[in-house]
Amino acid sequence: MATAGTSCSLLDQPAFRSRFPTLDRQVYLATCSQGAPALDVLAALDAYRESWIARGAAWDEWLAAVDAARRAFARLVGARDDEVAVVSCASEGAYQVVASLPAPPAGRGRIVTSDLEFPSIAHVWMAQAARGFEVAFSPASRAGLAPELAAEDVTRLVDERTALVSVPLAAYANGFRADLRAIVADAHAKGARVFVDAYQGLGVLPCDVRELGCDYLVAGALKYLLGVPGIAFLYVRRELVELHRPTLTGWFGRREPFAFDPRTLDWSPTARRFETGTAAIPAAYAAAAGIGLLLRTDRGNVFAHVQQLADRLAEGLAAAGFELFSPEDRERRGPQVAVRVPDPGRVAATLADPAGPPARQAGRPVLASPRGSALRLSLHFYNDESDVEAAIRALSAALR
Q: Distance (Å, rounded) from C-alpha 71 to C-alpha 54?
């Protein structure tokens, strides 16, 4: 299988879009739930299937796929390979970090998070109350009608008692992007570490762990990284790796996994110490292919393209009379535009109906993602202006 290191010319937007044939039949604006299927990813899943048929237990190939996915993720976020652990989901990554901190560490028993946190992450933090940790929530403020999080909303809660500050790269509910660099700088100045949930944007939003300065970062593969469920990646800054001794562990967390020694409990000197059992092999194939495809693009061009589409979508929906649930400030808006609509689940189903009026107006069914009181329209580099215009027409038709 091709790996992230394969030498290829960079893909421009039309060439990238051509890797997603389903876009000829639908307007795909549901990446915040699941990325569109790429030919590269489907081919990788076929390669896994063929290896299974041809060789049965093709473990050398399968473990190579896991390592290929790890390397691809490390390259995408600017990390070293030995700073990345392969985990099953973002919740596991968060748990591996916090549950292997001393409880509470040296008088630092506070975890600072916010109301913009995805529940899977926030619930892991809250569950640490049994170990003596206190969770402080920064309530999301309101700028207009959209919930936002100013850096000072977080930093005012951070003090010498704080062990960990948790903030998303982009909020799942409306795509809001906080000033992460300011939050990281303040937390570090007060002796706290920073955990970033990058699930809702990594792949299209700029994110370099060295530039950001975060201590931990987690993201799953199934959304903007173009993979499938079952695999996620945890970055741990190299200087912190050996400070953690995870108790949720397994044979792949050992220095020598294939020593098969049940009496020796040691930890890998790398971020692999956060790993447990066998990774989801099909998901690793898909992740390596999806991230590998992203690595064949110019990252600056990807962000600029998505930001331009989000601007046009927000402007068009506002002009059509929709109430934006996403930030109006483009510098604080991630790769989605959310609008408040009555019964978002019903509206999403209406948009996706190939025989309905919205699809006729758009020329194709529109796939969007309902969440709470809002409908989320999320954008990737594979989207173009025709998708945006079609979505505006379809949504207007759906609510007539």
A: 26
| Residue 338: strand, helix, or coil | strand
**Domain assignments of the chain as residue spans, ordered by start:** 13-35+298-398, 59-294
Sequence-separated (6 or more) residues with CB below 8 Å from residue 210: 78, 79
In the numeric block, which tokens belong to residue 33?
Answer: 């739930």
> Averaged over 331-338, what is the pLDDT?
94
What is the token pair recorded at 312?
A: 């046009």
Q: pLDDT tens-digit profile of 273-309?
A: 999 999 999 999 999 999 999 999 999 999 999 999 9
Residue 271, CA atoms < 13 Å, CB-side half-sphere:
28
* Residue 205 DSSP one-character state: B
The DSSP 8-state label assigned to residue 38 in this structure reads P
Residue 2: pLDDT above 50? no
Classified by CATH at the fold level, domain 13-35+298-398 comes out as Aspartate Aminotransferase, domain 1 (3.90.1150)
Q: What pairing do the DSSP bridges indicate for beta strands 110-114 and 162-168?
A: parallel
Phi-psi sector, 107: left (phi>0), alpha (psi -120 to 50), beta: left
Question: DSSP H helical segments within the chain, as ranges?
Answer: 13-17, 39-55, 59-77, 90-98, 119-126, 151-155, 180-189, 209-212, 238-241, 281-294, 299-319, 344-352, 357-362, 385-398
Lowest mean pLDDT among 5-19, 286-300, 303-317, 369-383: 5-19
Residue 252: CB partners within 8 Å, gap ≥ 6? 272, 275, 276, 277, 278, 279
Rounded Cα gap, residues 181 and 187, in angstroms: 10
Residue 39 has pLDDT above 90, yes or no: yes
- The CA distance from 159 to 363, in Å, is 54
